[in-house]
Amino acid sequence: MKNLSIAVLKGDGIGPEVTNEAIKVLQTVAQKFGHQFIFEEALVGAAAIFDSGDPLPEKTLDICKANDVILFGAIGHPDFDNNPNATIRPEQGLLQLRKELNLFLNIRPVKAYDALLDKSPLKEAIINGVDLKIYRELTGGIYFGEKKLSEDGKLASDLCSYQVFEIERVAHLAFKAASKCKQKLTLVDKANVLETSRLWRRITSDVATHYPTIQFETLFVDNAAMQLILNPQQFDVILTSNLFGDILSDEASVIGGSLGLLPSASIGDEYAMFEPVHGSYYSATGKGIANPMAAILSAAMMLEHVNLLDEAKAIQSAVNMALNQQIVTEDIDPQYGKPTNIVGDFIVNVINKL
Ligand code: IPM
Ligand code: MN
């Protein structure tokens, strides 16, 4: 029996509805396996701005720190997306959270599910068997460098910088992951142009010498973007910087057939947060069409993180079962898609019957 306290930040758009399904699944797992999971909710993003003017209130940060792990929904709201002059934005809440909790690594596994091979716009022969992980640096690079806008509004700049320790810590974790997977690590960078990329290459090559059994390769990001859809089977662990990882992970979601399937883990030395990759998808809010699987699979990654491996597997096989039996939302099956809560209920029932 395990006691696990979970901070729940449902956020904006479809965040609350998909997170509710993940909580339902977690409660089922707790009951089934005899654990106690406690949930504590807090506001973040646009929801927090409307409440207090702050996308990451102090209280929310405290709640994140006080609990064992964090379950995150989504962030983003059209009021801010469509207003380039907004000085406070929901996304700042997420970026600040990553920084404050030192969540320096984001892990995004991408799988081609057998049941969905014909759903991807990519050919079956190309995606069959793909099982890769993107290891994205999350608290550095151009996301967090100094930002400038000249007074006349005619010049802007974003600084990209990396320090050795920021690269080393994610590189070690990526090599360790590769040693548990297919023994291959691909560093994606732009070392033919960027000084920061050359530092990534030098440091990652040094780290590679500690893992002699891992096949270590490098790819320029433009080529990697092409290889990801031309021949994704070649990849195991992809290690890359913050911005490249952001872009490549959305691209890679095409392999799985839907962005609504991609879970993620953001980890640091002290804290860990689990979050679907898809974002707030505001136009779908409250319509019951959001795919809860990414949130549910993020909950499974959370359980893996706290070493509840059988429990995580139970969730993953229940999701697989839903995919196999086509109990899926409309992003996967536009004609016969089921509502969000029906997909969640099905997964809950499968776990109950295990
Ligand atoms: C993601 C998102 C965020 C990012 C946004 C919402 C700030 O796109 O988690 O991939 O760019 O990191
Ligand atoms: Mn993104």
Please characterize this protein's 3D structure.
The chain has 354 residues and is of the alpha/beta class. The protein folds into 2 domains: 197 residues, Isopropylmalate Dehydrogenase, CATH 3.40.718.10; 137 residues, Isopropylmalate Dehydrogenase. The chain is built from 13 helices and 12 strands. Helix 8 links the parallel strand 8 and strand 9. Helix 1 packs across helix 11, helix 1 packs parallel to helix 13 and helix 7 packs across helix 8. The structure holds 3-isopropylmalic acid and manganese (II) ion (MN). The site of 3-isopropylmalic acid has 6 residues, from helix 5.
Secondary structure layout plus pairing:
Layout: E1 3-11, H1 15-33, E2 36-41, H2 46-52, H3 58-66, E3 69-74, H4 78-81, H5 90-100, E4 105-111, H6 124-127, E5 131-137, E6 147-149, E7 156-158, H7 164-180, E8 184-189, H8 195-208, E9 215-220, H9 221-230, E10 237-240, H10 242-256, E11 265-267, E12 272-274, H11 293-305, H12 309-324, H13 340-353
Parallel strand pairs: 1-2, 1-3, 3-12, 5-10, 8-9, 8-10
Antiparallel strand pairs: 4-5, 4-11, 6-7, 11-12
From N to C, what is the helix and strand string? EHEHHEHHEHEEEHEHEHEHEEHHH
Mean pLDDT: 97
Q: What class, by secondary structure content?
A: alpha/beta
Helix percent band: 40-55%
Report the radius of gyration as a whole number of Å.
20 Å
> What's the CATH H-level homologous superfamily of the largest domain?
Isopropylmalate Dehydrogenase
Strand elements, count: 12
Unreliable segments (pLDDT under 50, ≥5 consecutive)?
none
The CATH C-level name of the largest domain is Alpha Beta
Bound ligands: 3-isopropylmalic acid, manganese (II) ion
Give the oligomeric state: single chain
**Main beta sheet strand tally, sense and closure:** 10 strands, mixed
Give me the CATH architecture of the largest domain, please: 3-Layer(aba) Sandwich
Strand order, biggest sheet?
2-1-3-12-11-4-5-10-8-9
Number of discrete helical segments: 13
Shape: globular
Instruction: Tell me what portion of residues adopts beta-strand conformation.
Output: 15-25%
Q: What is the terminal-to-terminal distance?
A: 18 Å
